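Record 1 of the preview.
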Amino acid sequence: MAPILEVRNLTTYYKTRMNEKVCSVDNVSFILEDGKSLGIAGESGCGKSTLAMSVMGYYFPPLFYESGNIIIDGKEITGMDPNLIRQTVLGTEIAYIPQAAMNALNPTRKVMSFIEDVLKAHKMDLSKKDMYDMARQRFEVLNLPEKVLNQYAVELSGGMKQRTIIAISTILKPKVLIADEPTSALDVSSQKIVIRLLHDLMNKGFIRAMMFITHELPLLYNVTNDIVVMYAGEIVERGSVKEMVFDPIMPYSKGLMNSIIVPEEGTRGHVLTAIPGVPPNLKLKLEGCRFEERCSYKNICQGIQLEDKDAGPGRTYKCRLMEEELRGIYKKDEESLKKMKAEAAV
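->
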């Protein structure tokens, strides 16, 4: 079965006021299967949100397309006219929930007016009553009260605003939903409700697949099937959610997962560690391993050619060292840490 979303060698960049090129998504490829959810992880500035915007094929300065292909359910959208993409792709083939979505609603307009705008933009010949009935039924299915349709954004709580944005974005049943930090700035209870809403969208057939971007990596364990780790515009590792959370291979992925608290069995007792240094300057033409200057094992791999390596079905990582070498290094590090703890306890 063909994937619902396929991205091949996608490269996009920003152009600064000084006409400098900042390559924020560099030769990225991945697939998203029908009925699955894919998590996008990485520190700030690694290209997660730019990848999300780029995948929609809808480019406006300062973001520019350079090369690659984007295929949604067998339909190539790269190179399409922006107006045609807006009318036939956005909202129906793919939908996007941006960061700070809670601030996306105009406070002077009622929620129903936004839904009317979406339906009219896609040339749907519906009366006001039909549009209202359609919105009411959708909100009820997603456990959102009908009264929200007649309210202003300022009358809604933060969690309700976020859920409303998600409902509006998926009103036309897009095949792929891109959720960019959908739980940011929400308390734990509201996060749980939003996650349940996203699960409902999948289970009830309102969306067929999802890309989920977040800094809160523990959320990925409960939301996604697979995780892609990005660094400096590149994908450096991909695997199932269990593999990536409990057994990352690439040193950056390992450091990323070790820098957070995951309250799942198998990760308790891990010592939190920080990744030293800063990401590379994306204005420069980068060659070789982009993580090299921050990597604890750079002295071991100097001179070895960098390439993507397979580590099992659906598992890839970008590193100069072989999987067996890395696992051996990690094992020695863990043994040294245990020895230091034992000595300190004496």
